């Protein structure tokens, strides 16, 4: 291991200890990729709060496309390429006593690499940031930045041609943050743009101009729009649309996330 990598790993272990997390431990045996955010070892190795021993590990803090949905095979293949022929280790994290999770939850690392596979999948554009109670706030912030980098550079499933996009939502914060990004090369008007959640009876409708305090977004710029108690922890959808007084509703973008599963 290079000296720089050794220092980085040591710093990561120290940070984990500071947060009271479990130690990083090696995984043995053959590792199989189940989907874009889950791996399985050939023998059970990690203990759950229930006392059961499991061989299934869900990558904490990310959510990849489910099997049978668009981009699911690409996400699975991307994780498989990271896992292949590498020695792996895991830092297991725990959920609350009343959780019904039947898989271990953790941050998985390749030997000699201080960057977790969790964050690598986000940076490659094959997963969305996702939170549960066990993911530390500083790691969540790093993972959000990894996703924003993927969106900005149109990696993975962010490779569409849309310029104005909802790039991420930190729905787990008390002061929620929605990131609106202009990936194009020209300044875009925010006039008559609204963001709406998926509440069935009375959805929140937010004026982008009012929430952002400005009427345009520069090329390459990311705006942080703060909200309170708009986005549901159990899953939600944010729709960005233009609604002119004298014209039809124009759909611009949609951001969908799901709750713990």
Task: Considering the chains and any ligands shown, give keywords for the structure.
single chain, 261 residues, alpha+beta, OB fold (Dihydrolipoamide Acetyltransferase, E2P), Immunoglobulin-like, six-stranded mixed beta sheet, four-stranded antiparallel beta sheet, 19 strands, elongated, disordered N terminus
What does this structure look like?
The chain has five helices and 19 strands. It has 261 residues and is an alpha+beta fold. It folds into two domains: 128 residues, OB fold (Dihydrolipoamide Acetyltransferase, E2P) (Beta Barrel); 99 residues, Immunoglobulin-like. The strands form six sheets. A six-stranded mixed sheet has the order 1-8-9-6-3-2. Strands 15-14-18-19 form a four-stranded antiparallel sheet. The protein has a three-stranded antiparallel sheet with strand order 11-12-17. Helix 3 runs parallel beside helix 4. Helices cover 21% and strands 33% of the residues.
């Amino acid at each position: 291991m290079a000296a720089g990598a050794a220092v980085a790993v040591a710093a990561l272990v120290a940070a984990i200890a500071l947060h009271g997390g479990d130690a990083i431990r090696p995984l043995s045996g053959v590792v199989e990729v189940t989907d874009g955010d889950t791996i399985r070892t050939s023998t059970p190795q990690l203990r759950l709060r229930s006392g059961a021993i499991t061989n299934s590990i869900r990558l904490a803090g990310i959510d990849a496309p489910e099997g049978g949905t668009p981009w699911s095979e690409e996400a699975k293949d991307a994780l498989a390429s990271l896992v292949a022929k590498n020695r792996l280790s895991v830092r297991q994290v725990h959920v609350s006593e009343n959780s019904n999770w039947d898989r271990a939850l953790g941050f998985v690392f390749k030997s000699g690499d201080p960057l977790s596979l969790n964050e690598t999948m986000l940076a490659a554009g094959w997963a969305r940031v996702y939170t549960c109670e066990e993911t530390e706030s500083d790691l969540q912030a790093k993972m959000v930045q990894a996703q924003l980098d993927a969106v900005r550079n149109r990696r993975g499933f962010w490779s569409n041609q849309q310029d104005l996009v909802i790039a991420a939502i930190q729905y787990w914060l008390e002061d929620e943050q929605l990131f609106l990004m202009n990936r194009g090369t020209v300044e875009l008007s925010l006039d008559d743009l609204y963001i709406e959640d998926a509440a069935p009876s009375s959805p929140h409708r937010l004026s982008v101009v009012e929430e952002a305090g400005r009427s345009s977004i520069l090329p390459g710029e990311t705006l942080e729009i703060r909200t309170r108690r708009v986005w549901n922890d159990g899953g939600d959808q944010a729709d960005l649309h233009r609604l002119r007084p004298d014209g039809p509703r124009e759909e611009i973008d949609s951001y969908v996330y799901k709750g713990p599963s």
